[in-house]
Amino acid sequence: MTTLSTYLMFQDGKAEEAMNLYIDVFGGEVESVSRWGSDGPGAEGTAQLAVFTLQGSRFMCFNSPPMHDFDFTPSTSTFVDFDDETELDRAYQVLSEDGAQLMPLDDYGFSKKFGWVNDRFGVSWQLNLPHS
């Protein structure tokens, strides 16, 4: 079986916190969480790998103990189409808190309303309310 998952790697032990935020914003469920043990390179009890779904899409987030010379980039983002403007506005507000607003919510011509943010973890989200 082939599966496709969006993979998010964190270097600061915040994978589980990020997963919980995304489940709160978009709705979803945790499939599994494996945790670092006393003999692992990560902090004991923290999430090592978490698998979860958001609106039927599968995500994996990993806490990487070693520091790397790279971070998240806006060239990789998750594009979300909303049916409801109120839900779009809430997602934009919550995800941009302590993050960065790359494109403020507005009508850019290609949809009714669009916004692009990097959340406080550096993950990039394009939020869209398409024309009917």
Main sheet overview: 4 strands, mixed
CATH architecture of the largest domain: 2-Layer Sandwich
Number of separate helices? 2
Question: How large, in whole angstroms, is the Cα Rg?
Answer: 16 Å
Query: Which percent bin holds the helix content?
Result: 10-25%
Distance between the termini: 35 Å
Outline: elongated
What does this protein structure show overall?
Residues 4-127 form the PhnB-like domain. It comes from Saccharopolyspora halophila. With 132 residues, this protein is an alpha/beta fold. The protein folds into 2 domains: 6-63, Signal recognition particle alu RNA binding heterodimer, srp9/1 (2-Layer Sandwich); 77-129, 2-Layer Sandwich (Signal recognition particle alu RNA binding heterodimer, srp9/1), CATH 3.30.720. Helices cover 18% and strands 39% of the residues. The chain contains 2 helices and 8 strands. The strands form 2 sheets. A 4-stranded mixed sheet has the order 1-4-3-2, with helices on one face. Strands 5-8-7-6 form a 4-stranded mixed sheet, with helices on one face. The chain is elongated. The termini are far apart.
List the helices and strands and how they pair.
Blueprint: E1 6-10, H1 15-26, E2 28-35, E3 47-54, E4 57-63, E5 77-81, H2 85-96, E6 100-106, E7 113-118, E8 124-129
Parallel strand pairs: 1-4, 5-8
Antiparallel strand pairs: 2-3, 3-4, 6-7, 7-8
Supply database-style keywords.
132 residues, alpha/beta, Signal recognition particle alu RNA binding heterodimer, srp9/1, 2 domains, four-stranded mixed β-sheet, elongated
